[in-house]
User: What shape does this take?
Amino acid sequence: MVFGSGSIKKVGEEAKKLGGTKALLVTTGNLLEVTGYLGVISKSLESVGIKYLVFNEVEENPSTTTCEKGAEIARREGVDVIIAFGGGSAMDAGKAISVLKSLGGKASDYFFPKIVEGVTTPVIAIPTTCGTGAEVTRYAIITELSSKKKMTMAGPAVLPRVAIVDPEVLKNIPKRLLAWTALDALSHALEAYTSRAATPMSDGCSLIATDYVLKYILKAYEGDEGAKGRLHIAATLGGMAINDAGTTIIHGAGYYLTTHHNVHHGLANALLMPHILEYNLSYVSEEKVSMLLRVVGASSVRELIKNMCNLMNALGIPDSIADVGVKPEELDIMAKDALEYKRNVANNPAPLSEDVMKELLRKALLGRSKVYGS
Ligand SMILES: [Fe+2]
Assistant: This one.
């Protein structure tokens, strides 16, 4: 991991260390141009004699087709290092392109429960949002358009070789995107902390990430650059936590909002988090709950959840899933869809059935203000 203001300038040096001679810069639309980083990256690569080409066709929630196309270009052009610049979508696409380019086949050949192993073209991941943590995870989440499902490539071969976490990239991030992605990071931290697969190592990452997001998100939202730096670290720590512990049914249920209502991934988790987290925490050991409450300075789970709701109100997060277009008659299908994300169900600390899931979603439909009076 390379961290610090201006660390993007080291991308050439890092690519060289990985033996790179020709890079594929994977990104979303004109992000490199609007952030002003095309010049910085190209200069850094040229200074060490590395050629590059840009693949900027990555859409939000990248599809299997896009990743297969990127892999085809990487193979044809003889690329030996991949630089993924952007949010979760660009980084996940970069990781999937590396797998497909190196190991061949179609994206669906690598979906979980298969574990992706083997030697893959090294990926340098540069996050431009403070949420996903994809720069340090061994997962790539790819959307299969035919089934409207988010599929996962998981395994050691998916993990980027280098993460460059430069807080300066958050300088001009739109406020809304900052809030949504930081709430995704908070969700990672708290889901990993409550996951059945949590370890003391992931708990350490989770607790600091949780503390940083709760403490700095409002200041960052108001434009404080130092606070944005803390969120950038929190996002990476959240990624490290889910790398061990995975996510729970908050993510599992949130996928439906993205695939069926086009809701941003971080916002989707935020809309569900208070309701599902409260239920999940009631199944987590007293020792762990009291450690969490000590860190966040709350005297009860209810207080923690209320504080979280107040923060979301201040950040302009809609009150309920009804506000993003979910109709009451959809809850049955949404509950079923969530429970199909088996990995998330397996990680969830509290028991889940269709009835339980529907009850949690009913609360999310009712909204924070009605459920918690916030
Ligand atoms: Fe996430």
